[in-house]
Specification:
Blueprint lengths: L1 H15 L12 E7 L5 E6 L8 E5 L15 E6 L8 E5 L2 E3 L5 E7 L13 E6 L6 E7 L28 E3 L5 E4 L5 E3 H8 L5 E4 L12 E3 L17 E7 L5 E6 L6 E2 L3 E6 L8 E4 L5 E2 L4 E5 L10 E2 L10 E6 L4 E6 L11 E2 L3 E2 L4 E4 L22 E4 L21 E9 L15 E11 L6 E6 L2 E7 L7 E10 L5 E7 L5 E6 L13 E6 L10 E5 L6 E2 L3 E7 L5 E6 L4 E2 L4 E5 L10 E2 L13 E7 L2 E8 L22 E5 L9 H4 E5 L20 E5 L5 E6 L4 E6 L11 E22 L4 E7 L8 E6 L5 E6 L7 E4 L9 E7 L2 E7 L5 E8 L6 E9 L7 E13 L18 E5 L6 E7 L5 E8 L4 E8 L4 E5 L8 E8 L4 E8 L3
Parallel strand pairs: 9-10, 12-14, 21-22, 42-43
Antiparallel strand pairs: 1-2, 1-11, 2-5, 3-4, 3-8, 4-7, 5-6, 6-7, 8-9, 11-13, 15-16, 15-27, 16-21, 17-20, 18-19, 18-23, 23-24, 25-26, 27-28, 29-30, 30-33, 31-32, 31-34, 34-35, 36-37, 36-46, 37-42, 38-41, 39-40, 39-44, 44-45, 46-47, 48-51, 49-50, 50-60, 51-56, 51-59, 51-60, 52-53, 52-59, ...
Length: 974
């Protein structure tokens, strides 16, 4: 019967040769060249025999994280006009497809209205078959710039990794270059080895001037697929279940077999459990824990409580009884790969057949002649139970870990599995060199038909590792403990082989970052990853806390997606010296970020918004510093990132205070504060960027307020929880300054959030709630009103502006003597005087500025003001006989140190008076200190320790009687 099956497969393969649009699998081709300069071109090497009539589509439409194409790019449709043998490099341009000798092998047509055009600013090419709604990807290349696949296709230059492909195996991401090619590092060997070499970005070279296509390698692969004409995707073309064990207790196992002649990524597959006749899954498990399954290989999936077989991977769906159906599902193709039992049917306690066959309390193994699974749910009974399966007693597990079938030739001995588990972190071997960093691992090798002489040997990237005599082996499994593997941030290839027979297998060890670092390294000092609106001012600040300059050329900054561990941004720093105490800023937009030293792409949404995510600073490949926010990112967290969050508020981020302080606790070292890129951090998070001559105060109410000024957008954002009231006592938040005599306040009310807040401009006699005032206010309905109080503590009066002013967002109040004129404008240039009021006896000096209140007390309300101008004398008229200054030099005024801890020094040179009143005010207007000091030519030392000042921003004023000098300073903790 077995010989008949092989003959049938051969005849079937012969009959299918030449079929149009035959199906390829991931890894049947691999990109080896890319040109975006001159004539756009790509080249690939065929790693399977491709028959005439096969169709492959090449597109630079990116793949969205949601699972579909980003639109509006181009596509080439290649139809092969002749057979292409495995190992052939094919060059594809808009003119057609050729081999290296220039012989035509296919015709290229553009998709209707969308010819493919490659960008010199980074792009991607995805190769697939089928239609755009349900593509079957076979290879992909990305050279957007950071050497990684992006989390999503946010522009024409970006793409997520396409479904069904594995970066480093069937897809490759390169650093940005106009033209690039594989450097022919490996040209021969089995298909799996070639795929690993070709899709390793370290084996590519690029050039922004010279074309690189074709790669021109002498490819000589072994073990090539017969190609899409060799039996189609059903016969030896898809994974199937090779063993089923329903044992006692939790001893339940499903073995999955790869009958194809290429590697298959199990991350694209699911096991689905249908219990007690259900027609929808009760449990679904992704099989990504099984890794990449080689041709002829198996992977065992087991119940978490199973103990008889030590290998395999535990998954939740292996929790069946004899009356439950199991489906092996290919999520990449959306098709069933195999069904055990009958979905939707409850057979009672088990499906049975003559000869003692039962799906309960038995071990069942697929016979060798089976070359495909059951892809359609059986109608009626489990008809293949006694025709496709061999029956064994309960708890028989000695066949797990290997399968012999007609699809793949089996060597005399067979290594069926190689798993590597890290058992330690990085060890630096006591040196500063990363070249000798290593970690310890447990290597488990499963095998069958082992030779009787020789050794089982392990090899790594540096050659021989260790061995064990075959005479000491038993049970089909060998475990090597404390195996030293290089910690170099790259997956490590380990090979197990028997010395006396041609029998080997490869496995990938996990990537572990090196750990050797200099004695002192820079730190991530400040981070702004979340801005209002378009996220166009995101940045990372690096700080040198050391006593010596640091060459930044040894460092790079990476951005890490916390949900999947993927590096979505990788930026090499330039070879510049960063002096002690100095800063270096990496930003997405140098036009919007002050002091930006390295402007990188993209301009917007540079840094992901957490939940969680991380930023790390690498010294060569070792992690010098890492910050995880909105939670802890595996491998990139110091302590914990829980509770550390940068809300989408203007001019705020997260940073260290004082600069460089590092206790290895992310959520303790970092806090929300006003951003200061390229400058010393501050401990305050209120009143960010607010000009020093403006004050903020709550009038008639208590509670939180805030005001920030964005000098790039020329926008003030004011926040209040004061509730708007009508009557003789106001409840508002005021932001402004004193003006004397004839004065003007003008602003554009750009927005109020929520929209039912009250925002406007005002001139008022004082901060007293019942002070006389003149205001123009935008009410919740969008209309504008004049509010004025002619007498102290009297209810204010209202003048309603005409309805046509609802869209006139520019408002202005002019004071001329005791007359107040209110105007509105569409553009701030052409004004309409809408109201005037005489306020007899109004104080010569008043408070002029912006004002805001909420619809009700306690509702946080924010208003944005632009085009703010406050003009007028800043002090009353000078005395009739003022003191003159016997110098043409300006007054020199400074405070130091800033920030200050226990003492603040004030220096005033060339002052117009010998004495002055020095005051310290909080940003809420509260006076904390006042005294008269001799200032001319002297330095006045103020003791702060007894003033009960909390850390934050304060205002210092020096009133000479002639003028008032003002400086801001920061009070820091001792």
């Amino acid at each position: 019967m077995r010989h008949f099956s092989k003959l049938f497969c051969f005849l079937l393969a012969f009959a299918f040769v030449g079929n149009a649009n035959a199906q390829l699998s991931p890894g049947d081709i691999a990109f080896v060249g890319y040109d975006a300069d001159g004539t756009d071109a790509v080249s690939f090497v065929a790693l399977a025999n491709i028959s005439s009539g096969t169709v492959i589509k090449f597109t630079d439409n990116g793949w969205l994280a949601s699972g579909s194409f980003r639109a509006n790019e181009g596509t080439w449709i290649l139809t092969f006009s002749s057979d292409v043998s495995c190992g052939t490099e094919v060059v594809v341009t808009a003119a057609g497809a050729t081999d290296l000798q220039g012989g035509a092998v296919g015709v290229v047509t553009p998709a209707p209205g969308n010819a493919l055009v490659l960008s010199t600013g980074g792009d991607q090419v995805l190769a697939y078959q089928g239609d755009e709604a349900s593509p079957s990807f076979i290879a992909a290349i990305n050279n957007e710039g950071a050497g990684v696949w992006q989390a999503d296709a946010t522009s024409s230059n970006t793409s997520a990794l396409p479904a069904g492909l594995v970066d480093g195996m069937t897809a490759v991401a390169l650093n940005e270059a106009d033209n690039a090619r594989y450097n022919c590092a490996t040209e021969s060997g089995d298909v799996s080895s070639l795929l690993l070499a070709i899709n390793n970005s370290a084996n590519w070279v690029g050039d922004n001037t010279n074309n690189q296509v074709p790669a021109g390698c002498a490819f000589a692969p072994t073990g090539c697929s017969a190609g899409p004409g060799g039996g189609g995707p059903t016969d030896c073309g898809e994974l199937f279940i090779s063993e089923y064990i329903e044992g006692s207790g939790s001893e339940k196992y499903i073995e999955v077999y790869n009958p194809t002649d290429g590697p298959v990524d199990l991350a694209n597959y699911e096991l689905r459990l249908y219990s007690n006749g259900n027609s929808s899954p009760n449990s679904t498990s992704n099989l990504n824990g099984g890794g990449v399954l080689p041709s002829g290989g198996v992977m065992v999936f087991k119940n978490s409580g199973a103990t008889l077989f030590s290998g395999g991977v535990s998954v939740g769906a292996v929790n069946f009884n004899g009356d439950d159906a199991v489906e092996l599902y290919n999520a990449a193709t959306g098709m069933t790969a195999d069904i055990f039992g009958v979905i939707g049917q409850d057979p009672g306690s088990a499906w049975t057949a003559a000869g003692g066959y039962s799906t309960a309390n038995k071990t069942l193994r697929r016979i060798a002649s089976v070359t495909q699974g059951i892809t359609a749910n059986p109608a009626g009974s489990f008809a293949t139970l006694d025709t496709e399966w061999e029956l064994y007693d309960q708890n028989t597990v000695d066949g797990l870990g290997f399968h012999i079938g007609d699809c793949v030739a089996v060597p005399t001995c067979l290594i069926t599995g190689l798993t590597i588990d890290a058992t330690s972190g990085c060890k630096d071997d006591g040196t500063d060199s990363q070249g000798d960093d290593y970690y310890l691992a447990k290597v488990t090798v499963t095998f069958s038909n082992a030779p009787t002489t020789g050794d089982l040997e392990l090899y790594g990237p540096n050659g021989f590792i260790t061995k064990v005599s075959v005479g000491s082996l038993s049970g089909g499994e060998a475990v090597f403990s404390n195996v030293e593997l290089p910690a170099n941030a790259m997956p490590v290839m380990v090979t197990a082989s028997f010395s006396d027979e041609d029998c080997s297998a490869d496995g990938l060890a996990p990537a572990v970052y090196p750990c050797s670092l200099p004695d002192c390294t820079p730190v991530i000092n400040e981070l702004d990853y979340n801005n209002p609106g378009t996220d166009d001012r995101e940045f990372v600040e690096i700080y040198n806390p050391c006593t010596q300059p640091i060459n930044l050329g040894d460092y790079s900054v990476i951005f890490v997606n916390g949900s999947n561990g993927q590096i979505y941004g990788n930026f090499q720093l330039p070879a510049v010296a960063l002096d002690p105490g100095e800063f270096f800023v990496i930003c997405g937009n140098g036009y919007t970020t002050p002091n930006c030293d390295l402007d990188v792409s993209p301009n917007t949404n540079l840094i992901q918004n957490g939940n969680p995510d991380a930023v790390a600073l690498l010294y060569i490949q070792a992690i010098a510093d890492a910050v995880s926010y909105e939670g802890s990112t595996n491998g990139f967290t110091e302590g914990s990132g829980d509770g550390l969050e940068d809300l989408a508020t203007a001019l705020r981020g997260i940073g260290r205070y004082v600069d460089g302080v590092d206790t290895d606790q992310n959520n303790a070292d970092f806090s929300v504060q006003c951003v200061t890129p390229g400058e010393p951090n501050v401990s305050i998070s209120q009143y960010c960027g607010l000009p020093a001559d403006l004050s903020v105060s709550n009038i008639g109410c208590v509670g939180y307020n805030d005001a920030v000024y964005d000098d790039y957008l020329d926008t003030y954002s004011v926040t209040s929880i004061c509730g708007h009231v009508y009557g003789g006592q106001d409840q508002v938040t005021f932001v402004g300054k004193e003006t004397c005599g004839d004065a003007q306040i003008m602003a554009r009310i750009a927005g109020v959030f929520p929209s039912y807040g009250y925002a406007g401009i005002t001139m008022r006699e004082s901060d007293a709630p019942g002070a006389r005032k003149m205001s123009v206010i935008r009410y919740p309905n969008g209309y504008k009103y004049v509010e004025f109080r002619p007498y102290p503590n009297a209810p204010y009066q209202i003048f309603w502006l005409p309805s046509y002013t609802i869209y006139m967002d520019f408002v202005r109040i002019n004071r001329v003597g005791d007359y107040f004129f209110c105007s509105v404008s569409y553009d701030g240039v052409n004004w309409t005087n809408i109201y005037q009021q005489y306020m007899a006896g109004m104080s010569y000096c008043v408070q002029s500025g912006m004002v805001l209140s909420a619809y009700a007390a306690g509702i946080s309300t924010t208003a944005d003001f632009t085009n703010v101008q406050i003009s007028g004398s800043a002090a009353p008229p000078r005395p009739t006989n003022p003191v003159t200054i016997n110098s043409d030099e300006p007054v020199v005024f400074s405070v130091f140190p800033n920030p200050a801890t226990d003492e603040l020094s004030v220096s005033v040179g060339n002052a117009p008076a010998e004495e002055a009143t020095i005051s310290i005010l909080g940003l809420d207007g509260r006076e904390l200190y006042r005294n008269v000091h001799n200032i001319n030519g002297n330095t006045v030392n103020l003791q702060l320790s007894g003033l009960q000042m909390t850390p934050g921003m304060y205002i210092l004023t020096v009133n000479t009687g002639e003028e008032v000098l003002t400086k801001r300073f920061v009070k820091a903790n001792p």
